[in-house]
Amino acid sequence: MTTNWNLRLFFGLALAVAATAAEPMKKIEVHGHRGARAMRPENTLPAFEYAIGIGVDVLELDMAVTKDNVVVVSHDPILRAPVCSPPPSAKARMAVIHQLTLAQVREWDCGNVRNPDFRTQQPVPGTKMPTLDEVFQLAAKSRVKFNIETKITPERTTRAQAEARLVQLGLKPGTPEGENAVESMMAIGPDSAPSPEEFVKLVLEKIRKYHVEDRVILQSFDYRTLIAMKKIAPEIQLSALSTDPNRSFVDIAKEAGAQIISPVYVSVTPEKVAAAHKAGLIVVPWTANKPADWDKLIAAGVDAIISDDPASLIAYLSKNGAR
Q1: 259 is in which domain, residue-wise?
Q2: Structural domain contains residue 137
């Protein structure tokens, strides 16, 4: 009888191992948010070089356009501290990128001050704002992909609207990080970027120049740019960014004509992810930096995670068999 019990135990374990082997844990891609702003100045070549070096799957970055129609990499449509410091000769402490030439933008130092929200960030004094050309050139010898965002909006955001969105994102008005986010949102307006059609034409020109059509995702909160890109280059993957915790992921992606839904991470639930997958969508939440939040996203079944600290996320996913 003991022998029979041992045999049953043996075969039961064998079947469990076989089932596990047949259904391995889902692998989750890692997007380095603004390169890796927890470790290097955001949206700079040092940040992207670091991210490539630690093995990210995707470089997440933001784009603005200068007065002379150069696509540059910047989260905000403005230059200001703590991200970028003006030259000594500058009269203003803030400037709109779309009102400056590339040469004027390059007078600002975008690496000499540590972002106070990231104590692990290592300043790199003398760092200039990169162009999209330079990012594609930097990554030419790798197979890293790019998740690039158009910074554009059809209307000016009021303080009340910005603070309401801040609450949706789980941030607190009145804190340094919160005030920075509010000012950034208020700075984006119709005059801070070219038209959606012109913006995507400039971006597509660079994508085709470096033959990275199959490595690029175009993302935006302003779905006009996604719709415009789809018209002239349907082969480019599109991602609909969202802060709305109440809307269906499927409905958001449908509105934008996107194959990817990129919600703020706090709005992700297993039910929303399952519905998105059933509709053939990819789910890429932003921007999660803590193990407790990563656990929830892993359990929800997301396809990728955008993080300011991609090295720690890679290590965590590897430890938990999700990479």
Answers
A1: 25-154+189-319
A2: yes
- What CATH number does the domain containing 247 carry? 3.20.20.190
- Show the DSSP H helices in 159-309 as ranges: 159-168, 176-187, 196-209, 223-232, 249-256, 270-278, 291-300
Rg (CA), the chain: 21
Q: Does residue 7 form part of some domain?
A: no
Q: Report pLDDT digits (tens) over 88-138.
A: 888 878 899 999 999 999 999 999 999 999 999 999 999 999 999 999 999
State the total domains in the chain. Answer: 1
B/e letters for 207-246, b = 16+ CB within 10 Å, e = fewer, are beebebeebbbbbbbbbbbbbbbbeebeebbbbbbbbeee
Q: What angle do CA 236, 273, 254 make, to 5 degrees?
A: 45
The model's pLDDT over 166-188, given as tens digits with 9 standing for 90+, comes to 787 777 777 877 887 788 778 77
Close Cβ partners of 148 (under 8 Å, ≥ 6 residues apart): 60, 61, 62, 63, 132, 203, 216, 217, 218, 219
**195 falls within a domain:** yes
Place of tokens 């509010």: 182
Residue 20 maps to a domain: no
